[in-house]
Specification:
The chain has one domain: Phosphorylase Kinase, domain 1 (2-Layer Sandwich). Helices cover about 15% and strands about 35% of the residues. It contains two helices and nine strands, in the order ββββββαββαβ. Strands 3, 4, 5, 6, 7, 8 and 9 form a seven-stranded antiparallel beta sheet that branches. It binds zinc ion. The site of zinc ion has 8 residues, from loops.
């Protein structure tokens, strides 16, 4: 069964049956052009690649970088105060470690940031590999992919 994802990062139930016009989670219009959300005022969300226990993985375009396609992994920390600070620190270390790895199976990390209790890891979008791993159901037409390199 295919799913139509709501791109609203705050949406509680982003998975919708494909025949829905309005999101059952947030009530937003699911049409291809009406949803415009970005992270950090820089990464325009173009699709949802997957969803896990700790967050979602998005396909996005880097507006500061010629709309370069990228993958954003969002992790939501379920803690506050000192524990949240600690996890921010751990996240930062993880991101740096991941960047040092430069493993061929892991798309290079080129940015990371945190906002509130959410952490974001920005990786290069590698077409093919990522598509094999997750079913891609974007709400926009696939256009800028020829600008990958
Ligand atoms: Zn929604």
């Amino acid at each position: 069964m295919s799913i139509l994802y709501c791109l609203n990062p705050e949406c509680s139930h982003p998975q919708n049956p494909t025949h829905y016009s309005y999101c059952q989670g947030c009530g937003g219009n699911l049409s291809q052009t009406s949803q415009s959300y970005s992270f950090h005022s820089r990464y325009l969300i173009v699709g949802v690649l997957g969803e896990g226990a700790f967050g979602r993985t998005y396909q996005a375009e880097d507006l500061n970088f010629n709309r370069k396609p990228c993958v954003i992994k969002k992790f939501i920390a379920q803690m506050q105060g000192a524990a949240l600070e600690k996890s921010q620190e751990l996240f930062q270390r993880e991101a740096e470690k991941l960047d040092e790895l430069k493993h061929e199976q892991i798309p290079p990390v080129y940015d990371y940031f945190s906002e509130g209790n959410s952490f974001y890891l920005v990786q290069e979008f590698i077409e093919g590999e990522t598509l094999l791993q997750y079913p891609v159901v974007g709400l926009r037409h696939e256009t800028q992919h020829n600008q990958l390199f």
